[in-house]
Q: What sequence folds into this?
């Protein structure tokens, strides 16, 4: 399964590569990283990429995670990729907006990787 | 006639050794003398009266002056008290301006701390797992594999350290911001300071207003090194300029919801013996009529309750009086505003 992680925090890549090292090594999961909503859209616009699961931060400079979510759900309809939102603000407003825009899940920072792993494996 | 002159006059009249003509002449002189004496007496009395009047008037004037002096003294006391009250109010206003901007930062601070915490928590868990794997490999006798894992543990620990320091820096800067300035210039990395406040202000605003977003651009001159400034004061100036920039792009976005990309750029540059911190936005710009007043205390274009009108005036004082620098503005209405903090080094 190919997973696109979108976060303006660059160390997120190192963290994911560490936390999912076994899954990456066993080729159960493959990760790609984008550091902004705009970069993520560019990545998704490239047709050579397979349908992916997207894990996106909400608060990013430029295009926010929620705007990215809206773009993805509007433009990539057949079939729409799954989008999980991750944010440092677990407040009701963000949650409700994300759900209204069609988010498939909502996680808060600090991330519980064991929980995330379970969720990813369930999808897989 | 006075009794003495009357006696002399009687003596002359009754004298037998003097002729009548001489008597008459002498009595005439005596009458003349009497007349003169009466006149002098009258004048003396008048002078005495005048003197008394003057003395009374003088006394009254002195009393009047004393009363006035008391009134002035009272007014002076009242003025001194008012001045003291004004000074206290000024200190309170500065403090409330600081706390207001700190309030704007609070949500940003929460966000900025959650991010490093996320790394600290997760990298420490990773380190634990890696150590278990390393033990496993050592038990199997795979020394090379164990070494490779040890390197990964090292990297994780470095990340924990890095993000721990990052959280520490955020808390420290927040405390510094709320504390009264100690007016001590300390070696400061102006790039780190500017970037920290840029992120805090950005996340603070995002937390307050979910519809807000802006592209952040930075261009820091890496050759600046450490410069001696009162870091919490310069931090406040930078924060003020950045929050104003965000406000300007938000206002423009309200006017042009489509096709406008709000952008705030923060840059630093060392030119000769000067450091320039530039905060530029592509927002509403400042109208010419407001431009002359922006550094005046209490001047604000924000709606009531949204701005104290002290941000720029305090910033101006911090830069000019506190650091011997300059605070300059360039703007075009409807297009952009760029503030430059110029600090001598």
A:
């Amino acid at each position: 399964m190919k997973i696109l992680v979108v976060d303006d925090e660059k160390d997120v890549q190192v963290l994911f590569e560490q936390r999912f090292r076994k899954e990456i090594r066993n080729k159960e999961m493959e990760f790609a990283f984008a550091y902004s909503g705009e970069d993520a859209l560019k990545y998704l616009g490239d047709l050579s990429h397979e349908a992916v699961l997207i894990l996106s931060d909400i608060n990013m400079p430029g295009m926010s995670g929620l705007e990215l979510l809206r773009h993805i759900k509007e433009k990539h309809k057949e079939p729409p990729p799954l989008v999980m939102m991750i944010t440092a603000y677990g407040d009701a407003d963000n949650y409700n907006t994300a759900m209204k825009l069609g988010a498939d899940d909502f996680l808060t920072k600090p991330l519980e990787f064991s929980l995330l792993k379970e969720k990813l494996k369930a999808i897989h | 006639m006075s009794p003495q002159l009357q006696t002399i006059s009687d003596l002359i009249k009754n004298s037998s050794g003097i002729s009548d003509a001489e008597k008459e002449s002498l009595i005439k002189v005596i009458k003349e003398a009497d007349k003169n004496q009466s006149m002098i007496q009258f004048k003396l009395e008048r002078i005495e009266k005048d003197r008394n009047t003057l003395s009374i008037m003088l006394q009254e004037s002195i009393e009047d002056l004393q009363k006035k002096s008391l009134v002035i003294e009272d007014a002076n006391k009242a003025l001194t008290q008012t001045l003291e009250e004004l000074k206290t109010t000024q200190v309170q206003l500065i403090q409330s301006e600081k706390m207001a901007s700190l309030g704007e930062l609070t949500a940003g601070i929460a966000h900025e701390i959650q991010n490093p915490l996320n790394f600290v928590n997760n990298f420490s868990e990773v380190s634990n797992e890696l150590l278990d794997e390393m033990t496993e490999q050592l038990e199997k006798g795979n020394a090379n594999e164990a070494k490779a894992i040890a390197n990964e543990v090292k990297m994780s620990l470095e990340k924990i350290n890095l993000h721990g320091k990052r959280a520490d820096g955020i808390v420290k800067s927040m405390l510094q911001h709320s504390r009264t300035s100690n007016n001590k210039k300390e070696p400061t990395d102006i790039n780190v300071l500017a970037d920290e406040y840029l992120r805090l202000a950005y996340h603070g605003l995002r937390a307050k207003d979910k519809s807000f977003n802006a592209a952040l651009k930075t261009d820091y001159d890496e050759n600046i090194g450490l410069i001696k400034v009162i870091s919490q004061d310069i931090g406040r100036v930078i924060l003020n300029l950045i929050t104003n920039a965000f406000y300007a792009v938000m206002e423009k976005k309200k006017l042009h919801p489509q096709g406008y990309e709000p952008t705030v750029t923060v840059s630093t540059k060392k030119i000769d013996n000067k450091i320039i911190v530039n905060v530029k936005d592509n927002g509403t710009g400042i109208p010419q009529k407001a431009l002359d007043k922006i550094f005046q205390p209490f001047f604000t274009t924000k709606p009531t309750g949204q701005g104290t009108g002290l941000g720029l005036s305090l910033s101006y004082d911090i830069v000019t009086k506190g650091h011997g620098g300059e605070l300059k503005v360039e703007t075009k209405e409807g297009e952009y505003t760029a503030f430059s903090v110029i600090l001598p080094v």
Summary: Chain B touches chain A through 29 residues (CB under 8 Å).
